[in-house]
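Lecture 7, part B: from sequences to assemblies.

Below are the input chains for today's worked example.
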Amino acid sequence: MTLTTTTDPPGGYSLDPTWHAERARLNGLAALYDPGTLAICERLGLSRGWRCLDVGAGTGTLAQALQARVAPTGTVVALDVDTRFLEPLAGPGLEPVALDVTRSPLPEGAYDLVHARLVLEHLPERGHVLANMIRATQPGGWVLIEDFDWATALVVDPPSDVHRRVASAIRSVLSRRGYDPHYGRSLPRRLRAAGLTNIATRAESIQVDADPVQGIPQWELLADQLAPHTLAAGLTDQHELDAFHALLHDGRTVCFAPLMVSCWGQVGSR
Ligand SMILES: C[S@@+](CC[C@H](N)C(=O)[O-])C[C@H]1O[C@@H](n2cnc3c(N)ncnc32)[C@H](O)[C@@H]1O
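Predicted structure of the full complex, as structure tokens:
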């Protein structure tokens, strides 16, 4: 794949790819969401020989699973602004590419499937990136976008003020950086406006139980990464953050994750 790479900081990303525990945070998300993403890809016909692009590929677990399904003749490009976790996965049919998708064009009509999960919601340039991804898809190919909608992010049982306050603090800090907590619900409208056809959506809030040993890593690590900012802004305090961690290690707590909206559509002839 011929692309111009960049080492500049990513355009507008509201989180820090270089944070010390980012790998564990991304692995927590992948464990929860890779099976559902793969089920959609299979429904779309993913098979041997397909050329796939995963934008914001993170730790590359999905790219690896896609590669196993398109091998030996297909290829998967795992694109991310930070490819530290992807480089060791390079091999026949799996190509890590370092690129800021807000700044560089993707090759036109090059893929049967172009996917991004939990990426566009973070990027203020999301409209431009979506157009870039659609252009990169060949006529007849599929674009699959998956983003959260925070409609269910505050749902916890038993009800908890600590959970509500810390989750709201996280959302506030992210939103100030250009994150859209309701981007998920807008996906069907945006894919329709972009001219895609055969659009369909699956929206699911996964139940996540607090584990006395593990806690809920992806949720706790997000709170930890943003703690300097939520604390500095006075949106929470250390006592509340400690209580949040205790809650997510309390075996009785049941959380419902933000609504994951997966929306896909097909590119027509140009
Ligand atoms: C929240 S993570 C999601 C990772 C993976 N898609 C998943 O769902 O498990 C967002 C990913 O997008 C990458 N990213 C952020 N801004 C980007 C940009 N401008 N261009 C390319 N990748 C970007 C980050 O480095 C990170 O790996």
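Note for the exam: Residues 2-9 have pLDDT under 50 and may be disordered. Keep this in mind when comparing with the next example.
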